[in-house]
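Quick one - inputs below.
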Amino acid sequence: MLFFTRWKAAAILLTALAVCLCALPNFFPERVVRTWPSWAQRHVVLGLDLQGGSHLLLEVDTGAVRKEQLQAIDDDVLRVLRQARIPFTGRAIHGNAVEVHITRDTDLDTALGKLRELSQPLSGLAGSTGQRNIDITNNSGLITLAPTDAAVTERVRQAVDQSIEIIERRVNEIGLVEPTIQREGADRILVQVPGLQDPTRLKELLGKTAKLDFRMVDLSMTPEQAQDAHPSESEILDGEGGQKFLIEKRVLVSGADLVDAQAGFDPTNNQPVVNFRFNSGGARKFADVTTANVGKPFAIVLDNKVISAPVIRTPIIGGSGQISGNFTVQSANDLAVLLRAGALPAPLTIIEERTVGPGLGQDSINAGEHAAYAGAALVIIFMFVTYGLFGLFANIAVAVNVAMIFGVLSLLSATLTLPGIAGIVLTVGIAVDSNVLIYERIREEVRAGRTAINAIDAGFTRALATILDSNITTFIAAAVLFYIGTGPVRGFAVTLGVGIITTLFTAFTLTRLIVAYWVRLWRPKVVPI
Amino acid sequence: MRLLRIVPDDTKFDFMRFRRISFPVSAMLSIAAIALFFFHGLNFGIDFIGGTLMEVQTKAGPADLSKMRATIESLHLGDFQLQQFGAPDDVLIRISEQPGGDEAQQAAVQKVRDALGDDVDYRRVEVVGPSVSTELLAYGTIGLVLAIVAILIYLWFRFEWQFALGAMIANVHDLVLTVGFMSLTHIDFDLTSIAALLTILGYSLNDTVVIYDRIREMLRRYKRMPMPDLLNASVNATLSRSIVTHVTVAMSLLALLLFGGQAIHSFTATMMFGVVLVGTYTSVFIASPILIYLGVGSTRHGGTEEPEAPPVVPSATPVPAKPVKPSTPSRRARARR
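Output:
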């Protein structure tokens, strides 16, 4: 147990040194580290609870995605059957399916054939899975079209991907530094912005779908008359100021055709406005519509709310225009940001928010540091008082252990949280346990009458098996914690798990090596323990 | 230098005799803890029941709690609590989950922010919606069960099944008592509490495993020693280590408790109770004697055990400078692992 070949000793020391050195980037200012080669830059990231910042968990409204999917199928059914001139009745969305009744039995086969063309094979990343996106069933003339579960899942996945892209653009637009935006599970998105103290504006930006439509105002009746019954092609929408509008459902030009939007001021009255520009397709459509409807009002609809409903005075053929409403400078700016970033495929809901101010973060860092120093000092003194020289060896091993924890955490670019610091402090208490096990065993072997070197050797041999067993149980707990935990708790699991591994390394190699060298140099007759 | 010996070298304390006291006492305490859990309940934090938690710091002098209470009262947000948190100007505001889903929680936060305005610094704002809190509770419970099962399987592989079962009973007992403690002290029960429970599980087992390792070793060495004597010898042999280790862990926890700040206070307090108080007691007074009842020793001569530890290096050979002789035991020792 006490013998090390020269290369082995060198390997142990080099490993320990290398891992410790990995912790170095944490102790230099950011701008110094930047000048180092990229492989040497990895460092521990402070968790949001330590550096302050906002953590927002958003959920994509899968209900809205499903509804939109049904709406699309419904539109397709209408289009297909009309094209084929097949008479039908009772076309409607029922639950999770679109139902349509074919009037004449003789048309049934043709109708089924046409509708089946709507059902496309799903092509996932893994190639064709053989699944199709719509289930079509026929029950004596009543045809039911339901999106398959796979199709819904796929659509939600796409919606999350698109949302992430759009959130990235929105967050970058308002100049937040180093945001993290990532998918969580099937339908969630995690947004973390370090240093953000008041996420109110961010939440407002993320909470808006920003679906912009240009539609015509339905002038066939007043909104008041329309309260009871109105044309099925129109709907009643609220305006910004609380008034009602009767607006056609048909979208003339949508926000997807925008290429740019900028906040500005109306030169005539100096009110904040948003100037926008269409792409060529949008510009052509907009020109056609405005040419055909001079003198009539059209509505600018954002998220089903009418921002304004100006009357078209002259055809707008340049492809650019201006939205004026009751804007402040900030809200005009935000709208421009939203329009530039594009609309979310489905509404997002904030289901979890955790924001930590910088004051608390700094306090937590200080508290963690104080606790770490105090804990280390107590343990170091106690170990020295209990085991003397060997206690000193243990203390060296623990110091190396802590340095190695930081090294490994840096290599992993792990996040350090306050519970994570607690994990390290706890590791100091636990890491000495491996030494305690060894030393107590040595004491026992000495009492059993062995010579000094014999006792030391036997102590190591027998204690190491125990150390392995006892640490694996704790490691299992840490692994489970890592798996189920989020945020700060996961940080605790990481430091605990890494601490156990470095503890095993130091117990099995470094402590042994130190003791072996001491034995070789001093050839002790009595173990001073 | 005279070194500290907390436990005298030849301690021979009859721990096993205490099983007649410790088992009933533990059973009673466990029942009490379960009763506390059901009738007194846990002080669930927003992680598990949803709602809003805000830590604010007043900018001008100590916080006027009654004024703040009146301000929030006027917002009609249902149940809420105000609590001094560490310093006189630091206040913790808890608002129960608002009816109306996730958006309603956000609206409530905004109302409080508007009402308190710029008089305070918002040190921490946490909002957990209903869907997340349900999940977190489920994950926490699943995690605990998963950890217990995983450790059980590991111990079953490493030891005989009686040991695994004994360790499990002992450590479920630990968890039950700790939960009882949390109920009694009304400590916040949130995600960090689950972390504390899992860590307590890990470390109590750590301790139990150390004793079990020794029991296994003794079982191989002393084939004819009566079980209670053998268990006593094992516990006594590891007693010094148990105490030294618990002192060091207690020191680390004490440092965290005193200096670690309010945010992890309940976490460290729970750990202190679970690891240092209950864990130590359990491995000595529950985990070891329970092996008598589980029938360890009756299958002592089973052939599946590994041979006894390798012979000791002859005393005449100190560590030589050349890699010849002692490499044999060390290699064998390594192979055993």
